[in-house]
Amino acid sequence: xxxxxxxxxxxxxxxxxxxxxxxxxxxxxxxxxxxxxxxxxxxxxxxxxxxxxxxxxxxxxxxxxxxxxxxxxxxxxxxxxxxxxxxxxxxxxxxxxxxxxxxxxxxxxxxxxxxxxxxxxxxxxxxxxxxxxxxxxxxxxxxxxxxxxxxxxxxxxxxxxxxxxxxxxxxxxxxxxxxxxxxxxxxxxxxxxxxxxxxxxxxxxxxxxxxxxxxxxxxxxxxxxxxxxxxxxxxxxxxxxxxxxxxxxxxxxxxxxxxxxxxxxxxxxxxxxxxxxxxxxxxxxxxxxxxxxxxxxxxxxxxxxxxxxxxxxxxxxxxxxxxxxxxxxxxxxxxxxxxxxxxxxxxxxxxxxxxxxxxxxxxxxxxxxxxxxxxxxxxxxxxxxxxxxxxxxxxxxxxxxxxxxxxxxxxxxxxxxx
Amino acid sequence: xxxxxxxxxxxxxxxxxxxxxxxxxxxxxxxxxxxxxxxxxxxxxxxxxxxxxxxxxxxxxxxxxxxxxxxxxxxxxxxxxxxxxxxxxxxxxxxxxxxxxxxxxxxxxxxxxxxxxxxxxxxxxxxxxxxxxxxxxxxxxxxxxxxxxxxxxxxxxxxxxxxxxx
Lengths: 418, 166
Known about the structure:
The structure holds two protein chains of two kinds. By secondary structure, chain A is mainly α. Chain A has twelve helices and five strands. In chain A, the strands form two sheets. A three-stranded antiparallel sheet of chain A has the order 3-4-5, with helices on one face. Chain A has a two-stranded antiparallel sheet with strand order 1-2. In chain B, strands 2-3-5 form a three-stranded antiparallel sheet. Chain B has a two-stranded antiparallel sheet with strand order 1-4.
């Protein structure tokens, strides 16, 4: 009985039932979080601008998202006369689905012990985790492009055009900045990336600091948030690709944007800040040979982990805090920085992020190879050396960006004239 | 005349760096986010404070026995630049003049307050009031009864703390 709580649930019927239950709960939590992120965005932006924000519906405006949702459901659906009907309807669906399904492979807490065995707190622990996310998140652009094209509106079309160019450009930087993480973890499964961070005793944001910064920039560009919101660009393109959309179809684009934000935040928390890991080795556990272990003893025999409801709750809270911090960062940056010019976005993506991400992957690979050659195994010392190397790389990056003309101020671009 | 040239030095790095400017901006927004100095007035719940000089819809002062203080001298319709006051005076058996008809069209009124300034018996006043919504236009012509029944405070036309309106 004691042992059955450590062994993962693989019994047919129970497994399916639990999975369906998990999907329902996670879907509900995502939609709720998305709804309240929209409220948080409006409230935080109001505070930043010394306003109050929506505070009328419910206590402190907490029922505002529900009122917004109801309004959007009851509004009249419009269809532009010259729009292509099928694709016009398909656009918001294609934007929303990839944004929601990417969350399936992100572990959000330590396994929960039940009487049927331990339930992993992840919908699908697929072995191709990161690749799955990359593949699906790049599908998100199809919704935007199809919506912009089908609207038959020049602003929507320009927005879609910009979206496709931007997404493709930053997909490259995103993938390349991830290579360092995948090399260090030696795997693409997100549960194992969390386990590797527990093993090394450092969250990957420290040994791979530059990778994290590049990933952060690319994630902002991928989610079309300011300062990279070229596809929407209110002051230039009305609202870009969803100019012609209203009511629930517009709402679906809105949900897609915030779900993308949520997924990107959760991904940053998982890849670089230990996911559901709390500092210390109290909650370290990993599925090894069908049972959860907390590590290996000296002679290589696995030590079984102890699962408890409190661990699950505490680790879920840790995960929620980290994700929430990144959501706040998204909002905070949006209401601080102005939009880049289109050529600046492209230059940053291709001329700065791409070569630096490539070079950084080489540096990390070289450092890791050297460390293995001189006999330092994967562990805390290994992490410290990488932290030092990455710190130097980050300083170099900051030095470069600080004086570059690409994202310099208005005056620094004219440095050819004396 | 010789052309005078001025050599301007290029802005320094700390002024042109995007990174430093961005971080500075983040600092400012964070300060406001954590400590918002909201100037919004929560109007329906919290009463709005009006200036003592505020000139709103009129009110007619009344004697203790309920008669209007107005003596129908005709100065206010004369001085009114918007011509919004209609006054028909009358006289009772003791020879006291009183207004038979006294109407102010609040749509025509420009709220200059000259009627209050010119009134010799301090009968007509502009008031400290702005909640004037009505369903029909004709409700905006205030008659004598309405003017006498207004209960909002009257305007001082000047600010005692700032007599020269500086």
